[in-house]
Request: fold
Amino acid sequence: MINNLRRLVPVLDWGRNYTRGAFSNDLIAALIVTIMLIPQSLAYALLAGLPPEAGIYASIVPIVLYAIFGTSRALAVGPVAVVSLLTATAIGQVAEQGTAGYAVAALTLAFLSGAFLVLMGVMRLGFMANFLSHPVIAGFITASGVLIATSQLRHILGVDAHGHTLPEMIGSILAHLPETNWVTLAIGSLATGFLFWVRKHLKHFLGFLGAGPVLANILTKAGPVAAVVATTVTVWALGLNAQGVQIVGTVPQGLPPFTMPDLSLDLVGELIAPAILISIIGFVESVSVAQTLAAKKRQRIDPDQELIGLGAANLGAAFTGGYPVTGGFARSVVNFDAGAETPAAGAFTAVGLAIAAFALTPLVYFLPKATLAATIIVAVLSLVDFSVLKKTWVYSRADFVAVAATIGLTLGLGVEVGVASGVVTSILLHLYKTSRPHVAEVGLVPGSQHFRNILRHEVETIPSIVTLRVDESLYFVNARFLEDLIQHRVPDGSSVSHVILMFSAVNEVDYSALESLEAINQRLSDMGVGLHLSEVKGPVMDRLKRSHFLDQLNGRVFLSQYEAWITVGAHDNVVETVRNRSKL
Amino acid sequence: MINNLRRLVPVLDWGRNYTRGAFSNDLIAALIVTIMLIPQSLAYALLAGLPPEAGIYASIVPIVLYAIFGTSRALAVGPVAVVSLLTATAIGQVAEQGTAGYAVAALTLAFLSGAFLVLMGVMRLGFMANFLSHPVIAGFITASGVLIATSQLRHILGVDAHGHTLPEMIGSILAHLPETNWVTLAIGSLATGFLFWVRKHLKHFLGFLGAGPVLANILTKAGPVAAVVATTVTVWALGLNAQGVQIVGTVPQGLPPFTMPDLSLDLVGELIAPAILISIIGFVESVSVAQTLAAKKRQRIDPDQELIGLGAANLGAAFTGGYPVTGGFARSVVNFDAGAETPAAGAFTAVGLAIAAFALTPLVYFLPKATLAATIIVAVLSLVDFSVLKKTWVYSRADFVAVAATIGLTLGLGVEVGVASGVVTSILLHLYKTSRPHVAEVGLVPGSQHFRNILRHEVETIPSIVTLRVDESLYFVNARFLEDLIQHRVPDGSSVSHVILMFSAVNEVDYSALESLEAINQRLSDMGVGLHLSEVKGPVMDRLKRSHFLDQLNGRVFLSQYEAWITVGAHDNVVETVRNRSKL
Reply:
């Protein structure tokens, strides 16, 4: 009972042993993450098409709830780039950006997403995240990074462009290029250049100046804050907003409000599919970060409990003016590197952001949107990695097709179509591969009891006996294949008198395959040819015994292939021949 | 070149050797099928919500086109029950039944379906029909049969009821029950009873009277025609249409008209998904009948060419006032039993129906719809077979779940949801099963070179070596599983010094699984534990060589498990122990 409660509410577990050392480590990590998260929260809200405070709100209560229910000790939850983009795509279809309905739809989306995640967690369906293949995820993240970076170009240029796909975005930006606001472009380019420099060179530069590694680390993470402060002050001092530089403007001051998502049937019906997609993408992204970081400290995370932690975080976002959240890649790594030991680091981050929401919001009035766009561009371009295309091309064409389809369709038709196609493609390719299983005709290795492929080894065969080793489980996708193959190998009027199917690599025979085996047996039986099985695995045999197949079988089931060979061969006029590779 | 042409247009092949004997056999078969097809065509058009002549038209040009491009020698193409129901469901969503738009939408649906089938055929994607599992198809056909029979009850009762699902239909019929037209009910019940009697007992009765088998066969197939004639004459003679008996009414007299499907983007967008579904269902139904019949005569059909044949038939239907067609189960069996030898039998049937369209349509003016409904009910109830539920329950719970979901959702939510759920369920269950592969820890069978599961056999083990036999291909769905399993079996601080993965049943390692193997190797390497592979299959090894995995591997790849055991064991302080089942 207590143990069950501790499993469901992990804070009860680690909270009891919380030490002073862990406290101070968590506090330092929280400070660094807070500094990083303030501009990011504003920026990702911008990406999602929401007012800036939504990003801050989404970083307070959800973090606390994850700290209570989550199992990862380093995961930093909040608004992230890919989920923000997915949110903009989803609610852009049901409401106009900037309207009250848009913000409410974001709450609904967070609520549905949270409810779905909790439901999956309660049903212990965490394993379903595995149905997304690694290359598809990698391709999707890369393509999303490109889309997100491109979508921010309009803020850097200070023009009004739109679009959900790469061609749309580029077309729209080119069309509006003559309207470029040169002051905005100057601010945006400088901020982008500065942030790239900070990311690449600042740490090394600070070390060169003699700063300690902890200080250098904090200063590096503060890069975006420095850009925010510098550009805000510049805009304010020179009155650049009068020259058309878009600024953040008024952000309400105070703690997150209590909000109610709109759960009308119409809206729920329209948002349920995107909510499921966002949940799955968010969960997969989050769980892979959490697993990677946990593995470094030899800790374990529980995927089912992670679903509940992330679900709670999203439900929290729905009721406190936020939008869908998940565990972020970059900030979790920062949190981990900064020495976070427990989820309390997250709770401290929430306190930091609450202070920001209360005290700092008036200060961002003159913050140019171009600076936020620069923050996003620099953050997402680190996710872009096209090398998966080359790696899969070398290793496996099927994986390459899946990743290329994901990247191409995400860029060309948008995020939702892209990821859905990636998943469907990888599953269809798997089905296709297993639909044509490798089946080897085998013979006896002379002087042994082993059987090997007659095309690859010098083996003995008996012409009247055909032995086929099936290198795949038999199920509906390949049921017909074996039927056709045997009809081809043992046609009418063939001199073959026995067929032995060697089932050493058959891990399953489903009902469709059973029907095919019955059809094969029926045909061979009509021709007077015996059908035998050998090396059938225990679970497969147990199942066959529950059908009538074994009663109808025009032959026997042998424990070993050698036994089958000896027994069946003895009935026949044994003619042993030795074939070898060169003859074939 | 010539051979290619013969493959694409099979009529060039069989047409050259067409004999007088084959001609007379085909003619007799065509006569019987024509007699059967006239009332069926009218009835299925009624089921599809179309005017009766659409059924006749769909049985003329499409049959001729299939005879030219198809490969089955017995398949009889035309309107069939399940596809008619799917057509009604699909176009009921875009147009009101009885309007001109409804009939045009049916043409569009046939065109899209035909184009999709031809495209699939040209791309040689016929194997995709295998992605539907046998139990799902059986469940879908059974549930559709129940839906279709129920939908016809309103014509038997003479009431106005509607609905796409079983609860809707039954509710609607019950609500309208007080409006029952008793004369219609009398005609409908008598016709239904008569047709059941003909189907069950007439052949036997005729034999008893001394009729030869061919005559008995023709007379049995003429049962529906007899019912049509008797009820039509009755309605005409007694003027029953004045008493509310619904009749077919005016049917245009003449050959099929030339029609143009509406290919506006809006309509195509709405119908493309149903068209794909209809194509796949129709193709699967048709191809399984064709394969079953071809197997009886030791003939082969070519699934890819079948796609082209059925596609051509549907394109023909689109331009001649028809609606989607496919190979029918019952009529193909009749055609086969009646002795059809070549597709020419189909062409002769088309001539028969053309004569009917030209000469007989005025005669069906007084034909009561109740008689057509009786024809449909008797035909589809022969498709209903719930035994697949029991058979799969006994054999495999996963198959049972798929078939139960298909039947339940088809009845409860309609045909489109039902079949889609069935397909998705069977694929997800397959992925789920392979996501938790069987992995056995194995040891050496004393005195042999064989390795067996330590839980099932008395084997020798070395405590510092863990050998795991993986009984499944490794791919994205189960990549993480192996990682977790090894982490569980060889935790930090374990005394294990070597892990050997026995890959004898691993037929594939995809890119996701490769990444998992790299992660496993990294972790074990950090712990100072060696990772070795044994019995890796040729194709898997070829692929691993294309990655960097083998360079990084903290251990070796051995040809046989015994070699691995001896080599790795020799490095260690060999402690051999014999375990047996009772100790575990």
Notes: The beta strands of chain A are 77-78, 326-327, 439-444, 451-453, 459-461, 465-470, 498-502, 530-534, 557-558, 577-579. Confidence is low (pLDDT under 50) at residues 577-584 of chain A.
